[in-house]
Specification:
Distance between the termini: 32 Å
Low-confidence stretches: none
Order of helices and strands: HHHHHEHHEHEHHEEEHEEEH
CATH architecture of one domain: 3-Layer(aba) Sandwich
Radius of gyration: 20 Å
CATH class of one domain: Alpha Beta
Length: 292
């Protein structure tokens, strides 16, 4: 049962907690690995676990399964359970072909903005009849059952926040890999997914998470505390390529300047650095340090 269903059934005699797949710190505890990232020996072990976490995710049952084929089948079974029990049965969905197509498109678009209009046209071209309202419902349903999470675009206007295209994130990297085989090749997406869910775990009741986009510049995450933007975070697997570095810094700088922030953060796979551009201090932080 979903927490909303439990609350309705028990009529207020319940307290709900959101339990996500394992965080990276929880994964290290499961494997009894010291989380001290400043020890050379520990750091090698930690990065070994990180590489697995990036591709296989954090569902607890999979931690101690060593057979990769069994892992893959287990994740695909999770997906089927979410599809048929949590979505089709719960919401009495009859257009299963449309639902399957829509979910595959969502998982192919993780960390990106999703256009319902574009998916609607793709379904229409494929000869699958469905209305746009049904697609918006599917998006809400998928988030309600924790198949995905979504991130809204920041704006001063509530109407713009609600109506702008949302970025979507799969609940787990392993599940995304089991559904979309091309996902495993994009380590940047996998890293951004980890950061998104870690930020979701850390958010207090007074904090909100958005992405910032203006014209061609984008900042992956901004955190709003009460009514004030307090932090801007960019995620990039590596900054070795000059064009990539220029693009990522541009998005972060624009966000910091727009919100009057004096510093911003870029989370990377393993790069340390700090520098100042146009009066903004930029810090490069390895993902293991951010997650510790």
């Amino acid at each position: 049962m979903l927490s909303s269903e439990i609350a309705t059934t028990l009529r207020g005699r319940s307290i709900s907690y959101t339990i996500y797949p394992l965080s990276f710190k929880e994964m290290l505890r499961f494997k009894a690995i010291n989380s001290d990232i400043y020890s050379t020996t520990n750091r090698a072990l930690i990065y070994s676990v990180l590489d697995t976490y990036l591709s296989e995710g954090g569902f607890p049952e999979l931690v101690f399964i060593t057979d990769n084929e069994i892992k893959q089948k287990t994740l695909q079974e999770y997906y089927q359970v979410m599809l048929f029990r949590d979505l089709v049965d719960r919401y009495q969905i009859t257009n299963i072909a449309g639902l399957k197509f829509f979910l595959k498109r969502l998982y192919a678009s993780v960390t990106k903005q999703v256009s319902i209009h574009r998916i609607f046209n793709e379904l229409k071209s494929a000869g699958i009849p469905i209305g746009k309202n049904a697609l918006y419902q599917f998006l809400d349903f998928a988030e309600t059952i924790f198949m995905i999470g979504n991130l809204k675009k920041y704006s001063h206007k509530i109407s713009t926040i609600e109506l702008s295209e949302k970025k979507v994130y799969a609940i787990d990297n392993g599940l995304a890999n089991a559904v979309n085989f091309r996902f495993s090749a994009d380590l940047g997406k996998a890293l951004e997914q980890i950061v998104f869910w870690e930020l979701k775990r850390r958010l207090s009741n007074l904090e909100k998470l958005f992405y910032y986009r203006k014209q061609s510049a984008e900042c992956d995450f901004i955190i709003q505390t009460d009514e004030e933007i307090t932090e801007a975070i960019q995620v990039c697997y590596q900054l070795d390529d000059s064009e990539t570095k220029k693009r990522e810094i541009k998005g972060l700088l624009q966000a910091c300047q727009y919100f009057g922030l004096k510093q911003g953060k870029i989370i990377t796979y393993d790069s340390y650095d700090s520098f100042k551009i146009e009066g903004i201090s930029i810090e490069l932080v390895p993902i293991v340090e951010f997650l510790s």
